[in-house]
Amino acid sequence: MNSIGEVIRNTRKQKKLTLKEVAQTGSISLSFLSEIERDKANPSISVLKRIANALNVNFTDLFGEKEHSVVVRRNERKPLVHSEGSRITWFSLSEGSKNKMGPLMGVLEEGATSGDIGVGHSEGEEFLYVQSGGLEFVLGNDRYTLEEGDSIYFDARTPIAIRMYRKEKP
């Protein structure tokens, strides 16, 4: 299976786009995109969304062609992206990059944050469920506090930001 950088580079070349065009459209620096393509940098989910939008592909397509499977076993999940800066690791909950839906599971370490409000997808819907802990969730101009068991369903084009916090015990 190809690395994310290889998939991005191959997709960009297949679409006859230059590094500069993708960097400008995705609002990322040319040097950072080059490092990503050469697997010298580990992009955040937000950056990968911007690259996917710039390439006009589904976000999950960046993780390469996988044989389609209807079952994903818990012990077979591999991290898609881990960002030291954000302290979030993302896992795919489905196999096959051509699926219409690309469910992800984010494991947030204490104090994890997605940083500034990110870019939304070019289309689709998103669903987030808080299995444990608590999140401050920014959806466009609105801010929500989500606790264990809460969920939120929204238009994927809306920019978001996430910050985990540790709930104070009474």
How is this fold's topology laid out?
Blueprint: H1 4-14, H2 19-26, H3 30-37, H4 45-55, E1 79-83, E2 88-92, E3 104-108, E4 125-129, E5 134-139, E6 142-147, E7 151-155, E8 160-165
Antiparallel strand pairs: 1-2, 2-3, 4-7, 5-6, 5-8
Describe this protein's structure.
- The relative contact order is 0.14.
- The protein starts with a helix and ends in a 5-residue tail after the last strand.
- The model has no long low-confidence stretch (mean pLDDT 81).
- With 170 residues, the protein is α+β, with helices and mostly antiparallel strands.
- The strands form 3 sheets. Strands 1-2-3 form a 3-stranded antiparallel β-sheet, with no helix packed on it. A 3-stranded antiparallel β-sheet has the order 6-5-8, with no helix packed on it. Strands 4-7 form a two-stranded antiparallel sheet.
- 22% of the residues lie in helices and 25% in strands.
Task: List its salient traits.
alpha+beta; 22% helix; three-stranded antiparallel sheet; 25% strand; 4 helices; 170 residues
- Helix/strand order: HHHHEEEEEEEE
Helix and strand content put the structural class at alpha+beta
Q: What is the general shape?
A: globular
The first-to-last residue Cα distance is: 49 Å
User: Strand order of the main beta sheet, please?
Assistant: 1-2-3
Indicate the percent of residues in helices: 10-25%
Integer average pLDDT: 81
What is the total tally of β strands?
8
Give the DSSP E fraction (strand runs of 2 or more residues): 25-35%
Largest sheet: 3 strands, antiparallel
Q: Number of helical runs?
A: 4
> What are the low-pLDDT stretches, counting only 5+ consecutive residues below 50?
none
Rg of Cα set: 16 Å
